[in-house]
Amino acid sequence: MQADRISRERKAPDGNGDFGQALLDASLPSPDGVIGPDGKPAPKRFNVYRNNVIVSLIEALGDTFVAVRRLLGDGYFGALAREYIVHHPPTSPVLIWYGKSFPNFMAGFPPLQAYPYIADVGRLEWAWLQSYHAADAEPLDPAVLGDVAPDAVGQVRIERHPAARLISSPWPIYSLIQANRFAPDDPPAVDMQEGQDVLVARPEIEVDLLCLPPGGAAFLEALFDGAALEDAAGRALTAAPEFQLPVCLQTALSAGVFSALVPDNGQGHLSAKDDATRGAL
């Protein structure tokens, strides 16, 4: 990919000087009123300051979207990031949260239409960041579910752990992010004809990525939306007749993507620490 494929047309700041717009768009002149110690216009000083701001934002995006940067190359990624910065300036001084709309921006960016998987890789990287910074919570102890009476298991609802995320894609996003971020020295084979559903989890400190089997995404999405276990399994079987409930449920429990079990009667939550109420199930 060539960075010069990105072209822009900008409206210059008005007479009052749109400082913020000019600060993030290097194609615009310095705004009126920017003067140096001698009282004269100081475009060079402004350009230095502008360059430092833009570079810091590009670096912040690059730190978040590591795999995307590697897939595009540093030159193209930098040009793309500059374009994004102009249209989507930061709204918070906390730069780790800058870039939420970057995947959607890439999905709608004409020069990237031939590479539709890039946006989904970006969505997975953003989900990883969200998971990493999510609130801590005790993962659901599988024994809590094991204590439920067999005839009541299908009606229970399971609350999503705050760090759990689910990203589905018609592209091999799990393989691509492993090859371009987490395991570049020993990359997995990438089949561009394979869609992948990825579960993002952080039961303790480290964020884990798991590639789900057929039906797994439909099952977990239903549970995360509040469906009862039986209903979620039914949706998964509709989506993938080969869905295996025991395998998928065990995978999710082991990954720590649930934080509490909610009985069908709605009487509170049951978690790993609710020993006094577990017998009531």
Please describe the topology of this protein.
Layout lengths: L18 H6 L18 H22 L1 H7 L1 H14 L14 H6 L9 H16 L9 H5 L10 E4 L4 E5 L3 H10 L13 E6 L6 E4 L4 H9 L4 H11 L5 H11 L2 E5 L12 H4 L3
Antiparallel strand pairs: 1-5, 2-3, 3-4
Helix pairs in contact: 2-4, 3-4, 3-6, 3-8, 6-8, 9-10
What's the short version?
The protein is mainly α. 43% of the residues lie in helices and 9% in strands.
Low-confidence stretches: 2-17, 266-281
Strand content: 5-15%
- What's the multimeric state? single chain
Quantity of strands, as a count: 5
Can you tell me the CATH class of the largest domain?
Answer: Alpha Beta
Description:
There is one protein chain. 43% of the residues lie in helices and 9% in strands. The chain is mainly alpha-helical and 281 residues long. It folds into 2 domains: 1-115, no CATH class; 137-281, Enolase-like, domain 1. The longest helix has 22 residues, at 43-64. Mean pLDDT is 83; it is low at 2-17 and 266-281.
Output the keywords.
mainly alpha; 281 residues; disordered N terminus; Enolase-like, domain 1; single chain; disordered C terminus; elongated
